[in-house]
Design brief:
65% helix, mitochondrion, endoplasmic reticulum, ARM-type_fold, 16 helices, elongated, 308 residues, transmembrane helix, disordered N terminus, Armcx_regulator, mainly alpha, 0% strand
Length: 308
């Protein structure tokens, strides 16, 4: 086209095109604004879900993405971040079931064998949160022996050791899986005597779970325990430790009454926990605590003394 008439058609076409572009812009802008008003968010990738800035509880689809990422990547940074995100979400009961149904427990469980200690710790933390669900414990119990080996062969007072002890404590809240720790009781007392305050408290929480079960009493009393164990009954010991060792004594005595084993048993050898707890030194130490400055400790002692 040429001349003024052609130029007019071109100008009209440009105006129509600009108008159409503006309409499309308004439509898409309005849609985005509407999405924001409705609380809709763009879909997050699996890696986005692990960046620490996503605070919402993940839904089933997002958890599935995260599990796939955890299973497929070899990047230790991404693995650790994914385990932290999974562990945080496993604190919610609804997600404990979803992760199990998505086949997530073996995916997380396989990471406790990782050579990276930080990844091992995060995997144990995630399993710990998942283990609050009783149905999950059925699947998690296959890792108990491995966790015990790591706890007792790894560095003392390490993050991995504490994470493992917390998981074992959760797994022994009920009596169902306590028998799986039978061969590790002497090791537990060794860690109790050599660990720092935090480790001592965590081991005692686990031992208290075992001590409430009459079926575990004989195993506890057979354990070979160094005589330094009795120093935990000294008055200067931290209250959180002292109360627990007193409760341990009380629980075992109560179970002995249930089982009818109050007399010295010939199967209990010298150096066993039985001889320590039922010796004169232990009785004297507990009786001396009747004058303890803490009212809660004193009350506990007063309930025990008649049974000594």
């Amino acid at each position: 086209m040429g001349g003024p008439r052609g130029a007019g058609w071109v100008a009209a076409g440009l105006l129509l095109g600009a108008g159409a572009c503006y309409c499309i812009y308004r439509l898409t802008r309005g849609r985005r604004q509407g999405d924001r008003e409705l609380g809709m968010r763009p879909s997050k990738s699996a890696e986005d879900l692990t960046d620490g800035s996503y605070d919402d509880v993940l839904n089933a689809a997002q958890l599935q993405k995260l599990l796939y990422l955890l299973e497929s990547t070899e990047d230790p940074v991404i693995i650790e971040r994914a385990l932290i995100t999974l562990g945080n979400n496993a604190a919610f009961s609804v997600n404990q079931a979803i992760i199990r149904e998505l086949g997530g427990i073996p995916i997380v469980g396989n990471k406790i064998n990782h050579s990276n200690q930080s990844i091992k710790e995060k995997a144990l933390n995630a399993l710990n949160n998942l283990s609050v669900n009783v149905e999950n414990q059925i699947k998690i119990k296959i890792y108990i022996n491995q966790v015990c080996e790591d706890v007792f062969s790894g560095p003392l007072n390490s993050a991995v050791q504490l994470a493992g002890l917390r998981l074992l404590t959760n797994m022994t809240v009920t009596n169902d899986h306590q028998h799986m720790l039978h061969n590790y009781i002497t090791d537990l007392f060794q860690v109790l005597l050599t660990g720092n305050g935090n480790t001592k408290v965590q081991v005692l929480k686990l031992l208290l779970n075992l001590s409430e079960n009459p079926a575990m009493t004989e195993g506890l009393l057979h354990a070979q325990v160094d005589s330094s164990f009795l120093s935990l009954y000294d008055s200067h010991v931290a209250k959180e430790i002292l109360l627990r060792v007193l409760t341990l004594f009380q629980n075992i005595n109560n179970c002995l009454k249930i089982e009818g084993h109050l007399a010295v048993q010939p199967t209990f050898t010298e150096g066993s926990l039985f001889f320590l707890l039922h010796g004169e030194e232990c009785a004297q130490k507990i009786k001396a605590l009747v004058d303890h400055h803490d009212a809660e400790v004193k009350e506990k002692v007063l309930t025990i003394i008649p049974k000594i």
